[in-house]
Amino acid sequence: MTQATQPPVRAVLLDIEGTTIPVSFVHDTLFPYARKALPGLLRTHADDPDVRTQVAEIARLAPGVPPLRQLEAWMDADAKVAPLKALQGMVWAQGYADGVLKAALYPDVTPALRCWAAAGLALAVYSSGSVTAQKLIYGHTTEGDLSSVFVGFYDLQMGGKRDARSYVNILQDAQWQAGDVLFLSDVVAELDAAAQAGLRTCQIVRPQDGTQPGTTHPVAATLDEVAERFGLPRAGQA
Ligand SMILES: CSCCC(=O)C(=O)COP(=O)(O)O
Ligand SMILES: [Mg+2]
Fold first, then answer.
1. Which residue among 58, 80, 98 closes a domain?
2. In whole angstroms, what is the distance from residue 116 CA to residue 91 CA?
3. Taking residues 49-55, what's their average pLDDT?
4. Which of 52, 59, 89, 93 could form a disulfide with 133 if both were Cys (CB 3.0 to 4.6 A apart)?
5. Residue 78 DSSP one-character state
6. Which domain holds residue 180?
7. Is 229 in the pocket of ligand 1 (CB under 6 A)?
8. What is the dihedral of CA 21, 27, 31, 32, to 10 degrees?
9. pTM of the shown model
């Protein structure tokens, strides 16, 4: 089907890193903050039930390895592993509360998301970062609290982002039809998985991040370009 003959997009599912926020914010600000704070969290909150749950999960995935050593190995590898992502979300909460962390989204993101939500599109997040981390990012942007534009937040509890089943899980949870949903990500393997589950896709290619365009998905440099390409309302246009 050509774009003109396809049904309208009713829902947009968005990746975060490289799609709505620069890769540099995640790798140069969030990740170093977490690396520094995690030893303290494990030491001072060892009895916290949420911390205990994640430490038990680390032990299940890496039996016999000290939890902090395993977390460091995962951070070194930028592994998208649920217990690491959950614990990172816990330490970032303090950074946002202190005002040390503030999320500077790409400048095209806030106007587009506000415009799409106001026009009745259902917006949801799908990131390897935990739901807690996602709500923190969008709750503490340089442009204020944007979290209310989203009707859903999905993380690795749905499965990995390169696995088509994860998108089926999200569709089931959100009660969306695959063909109504547009998935935006900078990573072709994620888009491939979403397309396999029947979602529509668009690769966000941010020059600032040096994203390499693939050949199998439509490409856009900004969310305004996405709007133009998929017939969504455009911010700033009556
Ligand atoms: C939710 S903010 C932190 C993002 C993060 O931890 C990460 O690993 C990036 O994941 P994404 O799926 O958004 O590329
Ligand atoms: Mg990404």
1. 98
2. 31
3. 98
4. 89
5. T
6. 3-21+103-230
7. no
8. -130
9. 0.94
Strands 219-220 and 152-154 turn out to be unpaired
- Ligand nearest to the backbone CA of 156: 1
- pLDDT cut 90: percent of the chain above it: 95
Tell me how far the alpha carbon of residue 1 lies from the centroid of ligand 2, in angstroms. Answer: 27
Using one digit for the tens of pLDDT, what is the confidence trace for 129-183? Answer: 999 999 999 999 999 999 999 999 999 999 999 999 999 999 999 999 999 999 9
Q: Which of 154, 164, 198 is nearest to 180 (CA)?
A: 198
Radius of gyration of the chain (CA): 18
Q: Which residue has tokens 């979300």?
A: 89
* Top-confidence residue, 211 or 16: 16
223, 171: one domain: yes
What span, in angstroms and rounded, lies between the C-alpha atoms of 174 and 86?
22
Tokens standing for residue 108: 């095209």
ipTM over 0.85: yes
Question: Which of 25, 26, 188 most suits a substitution to test ligand 1, by most atoms within 8 Å of the C-beta?
Answer: 26
Look at the chain and count its residues.
Answer: 238
* Domain CATH code at residue 47: 1.10.720
